Amino acid sequence: MGFFDGCILASDIDGTLLLDGRIPKNNLEKIEWFKSEGGIFTLSTGRTVNATKYSYELSHANAPVITYHGGAIYDYEQEKFIYHKTLPLISRSFMKEIMEEFPSIGVEVHSGLKLYDIRPNKITYHHVEYEALSFDNIPENYEQQDWTKVLFGVEDENDLRLLSEFSKKFEGQGCRFMVTQNKENARYFEMVPEEVNKGDALLFLKDYFNCHTAYGIGDYFNDTELILKADLSAVTKDAPSELKNMADYVTCSCEEGAVADFIVYLKGSK
Questions:
Q1: What is the pLDDT of residues 40-73, one digit of tens each?
Q2: Band of pLDDT at residue 270, cut at 50, 70 and 90
Q3: Which CATH number fits domain 91-193: 3.40.1190.20, 3.40.630.30, 3.30.1240.10, 3.30.310.70?
Q4: Is residue 109 pLDDT above 70, yes or no?
Q5: Are 240 and 10 in contact (CB under 8 A)?
Q6: CA 126 → CA 86, 136, 235, distances in Å?
Q7: Domain 7-84+196-269 shares a fold with domain 91-193
């Protein structure tokens, strides 16, 4: 019997597990130990399936991965989705209204493994470059396809604030809107299915593997449900104070090995 038999741990990627494309060595060591003791380790991210594969391989995760903020879970070994939520058809109208109201905002549509650059700007270009993605040709019937999420690339800080306010008119109609990153070169505002969140996806995997305990660690507001719905949770020391108040434990920084710190904490808490 391993120390972590029946346990699953889901980690956010950017700012939690990985920094500037690198996973701290102590994270990798403790993840291997966690797995050797029977634990199931996976990732939980807003990234696409294609953009997550590098981190999946680098971290040696041993389970399907939560992607698109919990909108999909992808099994890289079987090369298929085991869980996939899609946006309602009315989301097409919401996207068009936003595009008309904010003509400088870039727009990406994510449809399963496909990525369409509906209206490019420097933020969408940065996004695909940073995550080593590529855009697919936009087919005539793209609006009839299943949409996993829409990403809006916002160049101006004030536009991000205005977009957040504008999107409130669409709430309660099957879509959820959220700021997922707010940096000068990466201001992302995203539309996902209303019921989608990382916490529910973690609970799906908990049942899928018949685990008795689920752990979660993150660093930003899109990790909120992951933190709240895990049996034990942690956030990095750089996380917003609101998240720190929700979590069971606050780790060291991402650069210092936040995931390793959390695993050590978990050993002591059992």
A1: 999 999 999 999 999 999 999 999 999 999 999 9
A2: low
A3: 3.30.1240.10
A4: yes
A5: no
A6: 25, 16, 27
A7: no
How far apart (Å, rounded) are the C-alpha atoms in residues 138 and 224?
Answer: 33
pLDDT at 19: 87
Q: Where are the domains of the chain?
A: 7-84+196-269, 91-193
Q: H or E segment at 178?
A: strand 175-183
DSSP label of 147: P
pLDDT surpassing 90 at residue 268: no
Residue 21 C-alpha from the chain's centroid: 16
Q: Give 241-259 pLDDT, tens digit per residue.
A: 999 999 999 999 999 999 9
User: E strand or H helix at 66, and its extent?
Assistant: strand 65-67
Q: Is 18 helix (H, G, I), strand (E, B) or coil?
A: strand
- Residue 199, SS3? helix
CATH code for the part of the protein at 7-84+196-269: 3.40.50.1000
Which token pair is 144?
A: 């009839």
From CA 61, how far away is CA 89, in angstroms rounded? 34
End-to-end CA distance of the chain: 14
What is the CB neighbour count within 10 angstroms for residue 171?
A: 11
Q: How many CA atoms lie within 13 A of 210 on its CB side?
A: 0
Bridge-partner residues for 119, per DSSP? 107
Helix (H), strand (E) at residue 262 = helix 258-269
